[in-house]
Design brief:
alpha/beta, Inosine-uridine Nucleoside N-ribohydrolase, Chain A, nine-stranded mixed β-sheet, 13 helices, globular, binds beta-D-ribofuranose, binds calcium ion
Length: 318
């Protein structure tokens, strides 16, 4: 079977945990490494959560490294109001005997990408601090990158603020650096942002079925969904970051449009917004003092939500 070599960069995180389960268990994904960054919670907790999820999935073989604890310029914020105090819904799953790799995430990325004999797909589902640091510290390592599929940004909406999505808002400079470097080097980038992020959902009833089915990964997956249903008072919850992994496994499940994207780095109300240029009249562009953004990104604007939710459900309950 043809496997896609993948590195994930995460801030685990309830929905990062959903994404890790999928990447760890899907037979078409060759998960080469996971790097951790501060985001939903602090980087030490993120690292413990990540190790715990991989252990539950029986993937102690996957190397995990701790990365940046705070963004390049911003102070660290967190999203414990969404993900619970331990970042994993305070469900009691965070036990691990394993230590992370002694290398910093940036060094692990350098080594794994440097050793790659085939292009690796990088899947950041977190603020892109580690990736920006990699690009500036070991740019030669980017030769090992085949493409980037990241969760972040949006053409139409925000969540951390009315304008900006959390991962980009958390470290806007990092996202700007990564988009720039990818454009310079011709690395294809897919943005799995808020335009599609909330659509693939699992119902509370399906979560209960997962929990009842007995396997550890299914129980964890079910409890993560149930936690979100409780927290948001809803009968269904998104698989969130796991959708970005679905986009690697089953790219035909999203509809993308190649569009110029910039990150707003100033802006009183809009810092961290991804400005997705959907204009289609060249006359506007010719008179635009900013010119067209260099970064062309495949922006996911549509998703076959049922297809991705089913992919996730069938994989986490093997
Ligand atoms: C993103 O922010 C985090 O809270 C989630 O894990 C996801 O990566 C959604 O905006
Ligand atoms: Ca995340």
């Amino acid at each position: 079977m043809q496997k896609t070599p993948v590195i994930m960069d995460v801030d685990t995180g309830v929905d990062d945990a959903c994404a890790l389960l999928l990447a760890a268990l899907d037979p078409t994904v060759d998960l080469r490494a996971v790097t951790c960054v501060g985001g939903n919670t602090d980087v030490d907790q993120v690292t413990r959560n990540t190790l715990a999820v991989l252990e539950i999935a029986g993937r102690e073989d996957v190397v995990v490294a701790r990365g940046a604890q705070r963004p390049l310029i911003e102070r660290a914020v967190h999203a414990r109001h969404v993900h619970g105090d331990d970042g994993m819904g305070d469900l009691g799953w965070v036990h691990t005997q394993r230590d992370p790799d002694p290398r910093h995430a940036v060094e692990l990325l350098r080594d794994v990408l440097g050793a790659a004999t085939e292009p690796i797909t990088l899947v950041p589902t977190a603020p892109m601090t580690n990736i920006a640091l990699l690009a500036r510290t070991y740019p030669e390592a980017l030769r090992g990158l085949g493409r980037i599929v990241f969760m972040g940004g949006a053409a139409q909406r925000g969540n951390a603020t009315a304008s900006a999505e959390f991962n980009v808002f958390h470290d806007p400079e990092a996202t700007a650096i990564v988009l720039d470097v990818a454009a310079e080097r011709g690395i294809p980038v897919t943005m799995y942002g808020l335009d599609v992020f909330y659509d693939p959902t699992v119902t509370r009833a399906q979560a209960k079925e997962l929990i009842a089915s007995g396997g550890d990964t299914a129980r964890l997956a079910g409890e993560l969904i149930e936690f979100q249903c409780e927290r948001f008072g809803s009968e269904q919850a998104t698989i969130g970051d796991a959708g970005a992994v679905c986009a690697v496994i089953d790219p035909d499940g999203i509809g993308t449009t190649a569009l110029p994207v910039r990150v707003e780095l100033t802006g009183t109300w809009s810092r961290g917004r991804t400005i997705v240029d959907v204009r289609d009249w060249s006359g506007d562009l010719a008179h635009d003092p900013h010119g067209r953004a260099d970064a062309m990104v495949d922006v996911a604007l549509e998703v076959d939500a049922r297809r991705y939710a089913d992919l996730w459900l069938s994989t986490v309950d093997p």
